[in-house]
Specification:
The protein is mainly α. The chain is built from 11 helices and no strands. It binds protoporphyrin IX containing FE. Residues 169-196 form a coiled coil.
C-alpha cells in the first residue's frame, strides 16, 4: 500500500500540472509580466499565509497537526518585508484580496479553527510547494525584475533556517505518513480531497490574476 505522502502527491499531480501551466504562472515565469503583477500576486499570498499562520500557535498543541507547525516555515514576516519593498512602507493601506483569495484564505482559516487534520492539506500544498517550485519562481523573479539574489522582494521564497530543503522535504513526508496512520481511512480520504481543493483554490487565484493582468495580445 502506498504511503500517505505518496497518495497525496499522486492525487494532486494533475492539479499541480494545471497550476504550474496556468496562464498567469506561465506568463510570470516566462518573464512576460511587469513587476506590478508580481506585487499583486505577493499581496494575495499575504492573505493566504496570514490564514495559515495566525492560528499556528494554537494548532501547535494539536496531536495530528501540531508536528507540522514549525517556526522555520513561517512566511508572513518575509512576505511583509517583500511587500514593503514592492509597495513601499504604506503597503498595508492599499492591500486588497481578490474574491478568489478571500475564498481561499477563508477556507484555510476555517480548517485551522475547526478541522486541524484538514489544515494539514493546506499546509502541505503551500509550504512543500514553496520549498520546491517556489525556488524556480524566485530565480525567475530575480532575473526578470532585478531583485537582489535572495533579497528584498523574494524573501518569501528564501527559507533561511532550512539548510537542506531536500532533507527537510523527506522529513516532511514522514510527518505526513505518520499523520496518515493517526487517522482512519475516511479521514485520510477527506484530507486528500481537501488537498485537491487547496490546489483548486490556488488555480482560482491564478485565474483571477490572469484576468487582472492579461497580456495585450
Ligand atoms: C510554475 C509554478 C510551479 C513550478 C515550476 C513547480 C515545480 C515543482 C517541482 C519541480 C516540484 C518537485 C519537487 C520535488 O520533487 O522535490 C514541486 C513539488 C510541489 N509543488 Fe510545485 N510547482 C509550481 C507551482 C505549484 C503550485 C501553485 C502549488 C500549489 C499551491 C505547488 C505545490 C507543490 C507541492 C505541494 C509539491 C510537493 C509534491 C510532493 O512531493 O508531495 N506547486 N513543484
Amino acid at each position: 500500500m502506498d504511503s500517505f505522502s505518496t497518495v497525496i502527491r499522486t492525487a494532486s499531480h494533475e492539479q499541480h500540472v494545471e497550476a504550474e501551466t496556468s496562464t498567469f504562472m506561465s506568463d510570470l515565469l516566462g518573464g512576460r509580466l511587469g513587476v506590478e503583477a508580481y506585487a499583486r500576486y505577493t499581496e494575495q499570498l499575504w492573505f493566504v499565509y496570514e490564514a495559515l499562520e495566525a492560528e499556528a500557535h494554537r494548532l501547535a498543541s494539536d496531536p495530528v497537526a501540531g508536528p507540522f507547525v514549525q517556526p522555520e516555515l513561517m512566511r508572513l514576516a518575509a512576505l511583509e518585508t517583500d511587500l514593503a519593498h514592492l509597495r513601499g512602507p504604506d503597503w498595508r493601506t492599499t492591500l486588497t484580496a481578490l474574491p478568489a483569495t478571500r475564498a481561499y484564505a477563508d477556507r484555510v482559516a476555517e480548517c485551522a479553527r475547526e478541522w486541524p487534520t484538514g489544515y494539514i492539506a493546506h499546509h502541505y500544498t503551500r509550504y512543500l510547494g514553496d520549498l520546491s517550485g517556489g525556488q524556480i519562481i524566485r530565480d525567475r523573479a530575480e532575473k526578470t525584475w532585478g531583485f537582489a539574489r535572495k533579497g528584498d522582494g523574494v524573501r518569501f521564497y528564501v527559507f533561511e533556517e532550512i539548510a537542506n530543503p531536500a532533507a527537510f522535504k523527506r522529513g516532511y513526508r514522514e510527518l505526513l505518513d505518520r499523520a496518515g496512520t493517526a487517522v482512519d481511512e475516511l479521514e485520510r480520504q477527506r484530507v486528500v480531497a481537501e488537498c485537491k481543493r487547496a490546489f483548486a483554490l490556488n488555480t482560482d487565484v491564478f485565474r483571477a490574476l490572469g484576468e487582472e493582468f492579461p497580456l495585450s495580445a
